[in-house]
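Before relying on records like the one below, remember that each one covers exactly one chain. Contacts with other chains, cofactors or solvent are not represented anywhere in the record.
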Amino acid sequence: MVTEKLTSLSKFCDMDTALKIINSQTLRWSAPHLFNDPFELSHKTLVELSKDALLKSLVMEALDRLFNPTPVKGRKNRLTETIDRWREEKRFSSEDEAESVLKVLLTKVISQQHIDQYIRAWKAFASAIRICCFTESPTNMATWQRYGDNHSGIALKFKCGLNTTLSSPQLVSYTAAPPLVTSIKQQIDIAYGKEPKLSTANFMEKLLIKNEAIAAENEWRCFSKASDETGKDDELWYDNTKFPTHELEAVFLGLAITTANREQVIAMIKKNYKNTKIFKAETVPGKFAVTFAQVPKL
């Protein structure tokens, strides 16, 4: 879906969270570590990238390039051109002879200072970023089960796009491999010209990658910067941000919501959200699916 065509997003909640949102007229925007997902990159993510380990891997790659009977194809840079020239000249008779020379050459290639600066920049970014998560449709069954308290909660449908609180939603990508801040493999690919140099420009993309096993959730994320300077207690790295009442377009009551909770939500919406519509979930005959019928507010 093209982002410009997206006009609304749904947030699935258990009843406690839903009542807090409706009562306070705020949405919580959190730093990534507060999602409690072990694969979510955050300021706490450990980057195991020692200079010795990187040098060893760079040397092994160079030795393979020097002594592999099949020439390596691909992008060229000064390092690869030097190694390929040595290969053509048969400068070294053995890997042992080449290794000492390569260590000297490749030590100059490693910029530990640049890597450290990049990691510090990531930590600063991940500390200051705030995220609010949604899905595209209130009929999403996977999201009802996981975030809607197994259909006992509700879904809140918000306007999104230009001139709204959710002005620039970004669609999550689902892949087999988890995101990384950086890695030895990436550093090798950079050194040998297979990847561009590290850039902070793609930090946001690292927060838009999730496990392909949960792709049915079809998550969208909205981003903002922390409203205040981050304190030492990272459990408080979140913002409760106000939204206008008219941006809450609709409330969808789950299939298994209790009568008491349903009546409480309806009463709160009638009182404080005059233009917000209310719908109740109903099963679709013969399908694992839900549809919705509007609940009169009179």
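The longest helix spans residues 51-67.
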